[in-house]
Amino acid sequence: MAAAGALTVGVTGGVLLMGQASVWLLHRWAGTADLNDLVMLVVVAIFLPLAMLLLGSAHHGTWRSRLTTAAFVLFTAGWVLHQWAVLHTAQVQALHERGRAAQGVVRSVVKGRDGDVLGLEVCLADGSTLGRVQVGFGSRVPDTGEEVVVTFDPDGPVLPLLGPVPGPPDNTVRNAALAAVALASPVIGTRLARALRARRTKRDDPGAQVRR
Q1: Whole-number Å distance between alpha carbons of 55 and 69
Q2: Which end of the chain is flanked by fewer CB atoms within 10 Å, N or C?
Q3: Are the C-beta atoms of 18 and 39 separated by less than 8 Å?
Q4: Comparing C-alpha atoms, which of 90, 109, 99 is closest to residue 174?
């Protein structure tokens, strides 16, 4: 029980720690788009071994197996959503605190291979150019040559955002995602403890499985 409790706290704490580390990197090293790619790689690197350990130790067809699978799906969805929400709210908070709004004209719309909008290139009134201007979720993508208002961070690497200086961020999504992680963590912690204990027993006593 002690090991399961420690793993439960460790799993939830790990999600929180990664979120805070991402915010630290966001403000000191990279823009949001670059950091999203890096964080997703780290999540996958941790996710795959954890999935193999958890699901590989489950007994198929039992209620414990189904509960573990459901908890793992909930945990993963909450983890990814929490990570996205943390980065999004950190970006909005940074622009809310120190963002500067400016008028400009859209020079080009940058799109990926699949047609998704990656950002805008906007020429400001003073002749300078802002690249990778982000379009908020659900916002209309302006046409080339259209006059727009953009908010940029003059003192940091946070990517500029289309629109005026934003208000304080809404933390509802972040808190809901963290609640999902906390709800699934006891099941994950218990399963991890059992899986690690089974592996340790098998390593220390290879004949235990045969005698069963």
Answers
A1: 7
A2: C
A3: yes
A4: 90
| Cα–Cα distance measured from residue 11 to residue 1, given in angstroms and rounded to the nearest whole number | 15
pLDDT at 98 over 70: yes
Q: Are 15 and 82 in contact (CB under 8 A)?
A: yes
Distance from the Cα of residue 98 to its chain's centroid: 23
Both tokens assigned to 44: 């996958």
Question: In a 10 Å sphere around its CB, with 0-12 CB exposed, 13-18 middle and 19+ buried, how is residue 79 labelled?
Answer: buried
Pair 95, 153: CB distance under 8 Å: yes
Tokens matching residue 148? 């727009």
Cβ 191 vs Cβ 163: under 8 Å: no
Integer Cα distance of 122 and 115 in angstroms: 19
> Residue 193: CA atoms inside 13 Å, Cβ hemisphere, count?
17
